[in-house]
Write a structure and sequence with these properties.
extended, alpha/beta, 474 residues, two-stranded antiparallel ribbon, 16 helices, single chain
Length: 474
């Protein structure tokens, strides 16, 4: 505002100045609330926090509470210490040469006993070149020459085998190492003249051979009881695209779409199970049952407590945490349901009602936006109305122990896209992004089911894909 504009406002009278200052205060408060948001009190990803520290951007704090246990492994924890094997690959004997006291030679003496120590070592990798020779033989009867066929998969004069291609793919897809560095690792480890272009072509071949896997997993996910869904944005060919996930504890399907909302979630329209998601509108409007992510709720309540100074937020967080603890205890006891869930639900209702009383809806005369006739609701009131209007969807986990409290399953499966973006930047082409999605779907599913990722990827190039179990557990 210039000096002339300020003087003109002053001449308009007290009401004009008061109205301007109230509007300015609301706008400043909105900016302060936006600045105060981080991954610990909102749905912002951790990558948005940056390196700034308080007071501009406080570092996020974990929502986990101390349970009184000491750090480290707990009693009954199964250790993974390296243990000796009864069938070593090689044995080296070390007999003593002379007596340790009188120095007499012991070369002809038989040992009384022995002690042993074992060293676990990896042999030096080496590429083994196998030459296939298809002979041509002339028939002594008719004189026609017949050439033997090469084995299936041996189609080029010189090519890499499934183990080496699976290893390179494993580095790129499972560990997100860029193309050039994957090629460098393979060259240094195996001494083979491996290139980034070879890896690029191998990924395309692997993706084509996983078409049946993609079709089966999409079909399987349509019938699961609980389906986790989420999405995240990334650059593809210089434009914003969205990577979506549909997953369970044992299955994972990832795909790319140019849109985030309605067009991209059409596959969920016929779904009739329970959707585990955040409060994104396209998911909320689905006709199926819902469980909204409790971790998102706790982060929003943290924002209401720390930034908006809402006294009801902290006790409501305690109620939700007691609900989660009650569900864990019921599962440990083998119970089918939480004992007296309505008691905790009434406490939830009490604090939501308390918050609604503390945050009445704004009146039409309180300075709403021009042309709308009402003031904008604050963030606290919007959160409270969601907690009230979607009470059943927020507390479904309390009445059904098979329903998870959070959507962390989907967030874990999507997190690798953010990690890849930090390491390698954007995808150059949509085809490359789709290939990566299909391969990540396969590796994530194999990992959930305890299948070895390296062996699974090598099986793709060997021509016999190791398929996971597509039947969800009961």
């Amino acid at each position: 505002m210039t000096e002339a504009e300020a003087r003109a406002l002053y001449r308009q009278g007290e009401e004009a100045v008061v109205s301007f200052l109230l509007d300015l205060s609301r706008r400043v408060r909105g900016v302060e609330e936006q600045i105060a948001k981080n991954s610990g009190n909102s749905s912002l990803p951790p990558s948005s926090d940056g390196l700034r520290k308080a007071p501009l951007r406080p570092m996020p704090q974990s929502l986990r509470k101390k349970n009184g246990k000491k750090q480290g492994g707990q009693r009954g924890h199964q250790g993974r210490t390296l243990s000796q094997t009864d069938a070593p690959d090689r044995v080296i004997e070390h007999p003593p040469l002379a007596c340790g006291q009188c120095r007499m030679s012991l070369a002809e003496c038989h040992p009384v006993t022995y002690s042993r120590r074992q060293v676990f070592e990896m042999p030096a990798p080496k590429v083994v070149v196998t030459e296939h020779r298809a002979f041509t033989v002339g028939c002594p009867c008719c004189g026609k020459e017949t050439t033997a066929p090469f084995p299936e998969g041996v189609s080029q004069p010189a090519q890499y085998g499934p183990n080496l291609l699976g290893f390179a793919t494993y580095l790129h897809v499972a560990h997100l190492i860029p193309f050039a560095r994957c090629a460098q690792i393979v060259r240094e480890v195996t001494s083979a003249p491996f290139s980034a272009g070879t890896l690029h072509r191998a990924l395309g071949v692997a993706s084509d051979r996983l078409t049946a896997f993609a079709d089966r997993i999409k079909e399987s996910l349509r019938g699961v009881a609980h389906l986790h869904v989420d999405e995240t944005g990334a650059r593809v060919g210089g434009e914003l695209h969205w990577f979506h996930v549909r997953c369970t504890e044992t299955l994972c399907y990832l795909f790319r779409h140019r849109r985030r909302g309605k067009e991209a979630v059409d596959d969920l329209v016929p779904y009739s199970g329970r959707l585990i998601s955040d409060f994104y509108g396209s998911y909320v409007r689905m006709a199926c049952s819902h469980q909204f992510c409790g971790a998102h709720l706790l982060r929003e309540l943290t924002f209401a407590r720390d930034v908006l100074d809402q006294s009801w937020a902290s006790p409501l967080m305690d109620v939700l945490e007691r609900m989660v603890a009650a569900c864990h205890c019921a599962r440990e006891r083998g119970d089918e349901r939480v004992e007296a869930p309505h008691v905790l639900a009434r406490q939830y209702d009490h604090w939501v009602d308390n918050g609604l009383c503390s945050n009445p809806p704004p009146g039409a005369e309180s300075g709403g936006k021009a042309g709308r006739g009402r003031a904008a609701k604050g963030k606290a009131l919007c959160l409270l109305e969601r907690l009230r209007d979607y009470r059943a969807e927020c507390l479904a986990f309390l009445y059904d122990l098979s329903v998870p409290f959070t959507n962390n399953e989907a967030e874990r499966d999507l997190r690798m896209f953010k990690v890849r973006s930090k390491i390698s930047g954007c995808f150059r082409t949509t085809a490359g992004a789709d290939v990566f999605c299909r391969l990540r779907s396969y590796t994530a599913t194999c990992q959930k089911q305890g299948m070895g990722l390296l062996r699974s990827l090598q099986s793709i190039f060997a021509g016999s894909v190791m398929m996971p179990n597509f039947v969800p557990p009961e």
